[in-house]
What does this fold into?
Amino acid sequence: MRMRHFFPAVVLICLTGCQTPTDGLTTSAAPTDLSGPAASAIAGDLAGRFAEQAGSTATPIRLHRDSSDFAVALEAALKGWGYTVVTDDKSAGTANATKPMELAYSLASSDGQVLARLSTDQLELGRAYTVSNGMAAPASPLSLMKRN
It folds into this structure.
């Protein structure tokens, strides 16, 4: 029973901590089979942890999103925490506006769990969630990596 929970945690740690630096963030992606309530639960939890770690809501967030339930839920959750969310270049505002912080996300399904990650140039958060009966609950501690 413990081994079943150990493997996704190891995969999550590798996904969040074993990455090479790049010039940009990865494209955001979420599994299409994730239900609306599960997507909302995961997005709400990650947005709250992101707000705790990222701090100030003065910098807008640029979210490259798809049309998944998770993308919609994450945008709503971030706005609920006071962030301004920009989803395209046209909504970035005027030339003297604050440059938005790029935020990417990824979700991967494995053995009834979803491995979720939020990434910026300065911060990465990851966590595994157990998904059953259309609902999601944290199944691992939060994985956090900060860059200087």
